[in-house]
Amino acid sequence: MTASTAVVLNSRPHGEPKLTDFRVETRPLPPPADGEVLLRTLFLSLDPYMRGRMNDAKSYAAAVPLGGVMEGGTVSEVLESRSPLLAPGDVVLSHDGWQTHAVRSAEGLRRLDPAQAPLSTALGILGMPGFAAYIGVEEIGRPAAGETFVVAAASGPVGSAAAQFARIRGARVVAIAGGARKTEWIRRELDVDAALDRRSPTFADDLAAAAPDGIDVYFENVGGAVFDAVLPLLNDHARVPVCGLVSQYNRTGADEGVDRLPALMTAINIKRMTFRGFTQRDFIATHTEAFRADVSRWWREGRLRYREDIVEGLENAPAAFLGMLRGDNFGKLVVRVAPDAPASGASPA
Amino acid sequence: MTASTAVVLNSRPHGEPKLTDFRVETRPLPPPADGEVLLRTLFLSLDPYMRGRMNDAKSYAAAVPLGGVMEGGTVSEVLESRSPLLAPGDVVLSHDGWQTHAVRSAEGLRRLDPAQAPLSTALGILGMPGFAAYIGVEEIGRPAAGETFVVAAASGPVGSAAAQFARIRGARVVAIAGGARKTEWIRRELDVDAALDRRSPTFADDLAAAAPDGIDVYFENVGGAVFDAVLPLLNDHARVPVCGLVSQYNRTGADEGVDRLPALMTAINIKRMTFRGFTQRDFIATHTEAFRADVSRWWREGRLRYREDIVEGLENAPAAFLGMLRGDNFGKLVVRVAPDAPASGASPA
Predict the structure, then answer these.
(1) Which residues neighbour B23 within 8 Å (Cβ) at sequence distance 6 or greater?
(2) Distance between CA atoms of B60 and B47, rounded to whole angstroms?
(3) What is the ipTM of this complex?
């Protein structure tokens, strides 16, 4: 009988999660039944949305129950198969969460070809984060050639993909990151028109200078001070795809001070702007095919840069996740759960 | 030589306009040149957007200059014509502002047929306010049959049209007005599922009770306390066409207290909502034909109720306008500028 070691939710965080909100457990797994496979996790994806799953609040997805395995996308290898769909040795994209092994139905698991792209990219630019960027750019923001497109967290998997997809559409791209190292990477690696450090004391002025014609599309994935600097620069008919608000995920209570809600509504009205929240899940059925066709082609053509931040060992996932919410990661955060999982070939820079 | 008596902008208001922000002037008009017509104003439309034109702030339309004639749509009669397009006696939809006469090019003036509908409806349900409602419902909000649609100021020209257009699409409609008289009119005249008084001390609870399945489309034309009651009830994928914010137009400065902007952005994100500001002007080229076809048919079929609030005499326009910003009007506010203009036949109730 196989055992799975898992990181489970130990307690619900109030505000910033702590290491003690997680605990590690090892539990036996049943053998696979008919139609099922036994998988071992090679790579686990860590993403900001997981913070929301730790809350017991109404959202577009169910909360992780107390004592439940933390949710997450995985790249996994088939160890045993009782399904004609998969054979031992196949590598698949799965969603087994923060654990070393899983037994599940073989239905809906997508086989990955390591010759096409490094396996871990299926958790990043060629996977869910890339798809979220694709929907925000291609379906909601739709920057036209010459329009100004702004995105933050642009060394991360969603932001870097969004910046590059917008550039491919011919937009003028202003990409923002936190700190000099990340900003320098963006400037060097991404083909953008301006790379800005949101931690600079002159950030708001820098942004205004980098967007002399205003902002037509702001891909929102951070919120907070970046949004505050963006808002006055938004043009008539600006579009704001709201993909996420990572700066807000650990917020508790509310900010005292001036209520800016009426001013935001007035700006939306007067400037005839569109603010649209979205999650990539709602577009899987309709847009996956176009995403795979476009983004794999751009990848094969060498047009995409992509950086990973690989953490070794499942036991280090909680600390890495907490760091990500503070912006400590530098690139797509992936946990190498199986020590022998192949090294990533994603542009390491 | 003809003279025109006009209401001009005397001073820019700070907050709520005063009567002294207007003054009346009589000025000579030149005779019409080639291609021009001399018009006399029969009816003048008073609309909330005019408050914005009194400010010297960036908006989607230019401000009225100090000393300039207040802007506004008019139903006007041709007195003299030097254009083959129009003949004396023709009645047209024009935009001559708050004045008794005007000389202008005959180009672009639409001839009105009093046999089709009362002339003043061209300023209301069959004109700009009806068109704004049409865009907000048909193009942006798009309530599906059975979805819950909410609109305020529903005894006014935009709100009453929006409520009825949504009803024709098969939506469940909750219509809101200020005060018992208006609410009673909505309940009696409009075919809506619930009529609510926003001045009731139990308004927020009344709204929750009237929308037991939440709100799918909120047609925003008032802002303020109505929006505050709507926001927590908005469903996943809710759409909020932002047509106007009449409760905000006289605001000065900002509200102290809790900053609700981050919470609004979080709600837009988590509920995957769309907030879209619009002005009907942006849709004239593309949607006028469909609007005229649909709404004139519904009008002829007797499916639309419409109420007017007629003010006699241009000199009473400023006081009526100020009252409208406080919600004193009951129905579409129209000034009968020419004492002999035909009485309206719009459902007087």
Answers:
(1) B7, B8, B10
(2) 16
(3) 0.92
Q: What is the CATH number of domain B3-124+307-336?
A: 3.90.180.10
Nearest CA in chain B to A282: B272
Question: Is B128-281 assigned to CATH 3.20.20.60?
Answer: no
Phi/psi region, residue B242 (left: phi>0; alpha: psi -120 to 50; beta: rest), is: beta
Q: Which chain A residues touch B if contact means CB-CB below 8 Å? A: 52, 59-60, 220, 223-224, 227, 236, 242-245, 248, 251, 254-279, 282
The secondary structure element, H or E, covering residue A308 is: strand A308-312
CATH 3.90.180.10 location in chain A: 3-121+307-336
Q: Calculate how close chain B gets to A202, using CA atoms only, in Å.
A: 23
pTM (two decimals): 0.93
User: Are the C-beta atoms of A176 and A239 separated by less than 8 Å?
Assistant: no
Interface test with B, best of A275, A282, A284 (most B CBs within 10 A): A275
Q: Model confidence over A275-313: pLDDT tens digits? A: 999 999 999 999 999 999 999 999 999 999 999 999 999
Q: Give how far Cα A29 sits from Cα of A5, A6, B137, B314, Å.
A: 10, 11, 54, 84
Contact state of B244 with A269 under an 8 Å Cβ cutoff:
yes
pLDDT tens figures, A12-42: 999 999 999 999 999 999 999 999 999 999 9
B275 interaction partners in chain A (CB closer than 8 Å): 265, 268, 274-276
